[in-house]
Amino acid sequence: MPTSHPTDLRPGDAYVQSFARGLEVIRSFSAAAPRQTLTEVATRTGLTRAGARRILLTLQSLGYVQSDGKLFALTPRILDLGFAYLSSMPMWNVAEPLMEALVEEVKESCSAAVLEGGDIVYVLRVSTRKIMRNTLGIGSRLPAWCTSMGRMLLAGLPDDEVRALLHATPLEARTRHTLTDVDAVLAKVQQARRQGWCLVNQELEEGLVSMAAPVTDRAGRTIAAINISGQVNRTSARVMQDTMLAPLREAARAISQRVVGA
After folding, report:
1. Cα separation of 126 and 110, whole Å?
2. Rounded to whole angstroms, what are the CA distances from 99 to 32, 45, 47, 55?
3. Sequence ranges of the domains in the chain
4. One fold for both 6-77 and 89-261?
5. Which one, of 68, 54, 4, 63, lies nearest residue 25 by Cα?
6. CA distances (Å), origin 133, targets 13, 147, 149, 233, 259
7. Which helix (H) or strand (E) holds 71?
8. Contact at 8 Å (CB) between 34 and 65?
9. Does the CA dihedral 12-5-124-56 come out positive or negative?
10. pLDDT tens for each residue of the chain, 262 residues long
11. What is the rounded distance in angstroms from the CA atom of residue 144 to the CA atom of residue 148?
12. Buried b (16+ CB within 10 A) or exposed e, 76-99
């Protein structure tokens, strides 16, 4: 059944503006702005101070926001919204033990993500005990075009959709290795589609190498991706491909098979 994109709906077309504004207020909080004044929330959301205040006080009365009288911050209860999604998707329950087994075998971190617009959103992560600069958790977002899971997920789309997403995204160099040309990135996406896996070497962050494989549904459509990530000073791209690609693809196949049976 086709679904409407949020931007397709307008007031009068089942679009609840006050609800949308409430979500914008929630999304205005981030790692860079964990605590905000009323004025800061209003500025970040484009709301009036009165409008932002009404929404913040509503969220506070529901237990999603707390305030010391000047600064507002989200409460842990906000996690209920994300966990409702995770708990409604049985695939993550079956994926976690398989990802844990993969991490035990390859001794590198493993994550799962889905595509949302031009970003990937992390839905599951199993880390090693090794300390890495790239600390990501459930709900973290990264650009799809320069990440292994992102390119793997883009590979599940037709080329015209991929090209449109790339043209709508600022392809800014994250490192000296980052591809910033639309055709070059599209070629990498096409390569990932042909071979059924994707490796990105230090394009997102210096020293970070990552390799991803697709999770598919019973129709063969890519619905998620899992990856292995590590540091090149410990595991080079060549070593990762030679020694970890087979276990990664087997884990992705096993998750896909269990999702079909879930």
Report:
1. 5
2. 30, 38, 42, 39
3. 6-77, 89-261
4. no
5. 54
6. 45, 16, 18, 13, 32
7. strand 71-74
8. no
9. negative
10. 333 344 444 555 567 788 889 889 998 998 788 899 999 999 999 999 999 999 999 999 999 899 998 999 988 787 777 666 655 556 677 888 999 999 999 999 999 999 988 999 888 888 876 544 456 677 788 999 999 999 999 999 999 999 999 999 999 999 999 999 999 999 999 999 999 999 999 999 999 999 999 999 888 999 999 999 999 998 999 999 999 999 999 999 999 988 765 5
11. 8
12. eebeeeeeeebeebebbebbbebb
Separation between Cα atoms, residue 91 and residue 66, nearest integer Å: 33
CATH superfamily of this structure's domain 89-261: GAF domain (3.30.450.40)
178: CB partners within 8 A, 6+ apart: 146, 172, 203, 204
Cβ–Cβ < 8 Å for 255, 91 = yes
Per-residue pLDDT reduced to its tens digit, 147-196: 999 999 999 999 999 999 999 999 999 999 999 999 999 999 999 999 99
Place of tokens 């040309």: 181
What angle, 0 to 180 degrees and rounded to 10, lies between the N-to-C axes of helices 49-61 and 17-27? 80
> Does domain 6-77 bear CATH number 3.30.70.270?
no
Secondary element (H or E) of residue 183? helix 182-195
Instruction: Report strand pairing: 222-231 vs 208-216.
Output: antiparallel
Specify the amino acid at residue 76.
P
For 90, list phi and psi in degrees, rounded to 5: -60, -20
The H or E element spanning position 125 is strand 119-126
Locate all alpha helices (DSSP H) within 88-135, ordered by sequence: 90-106
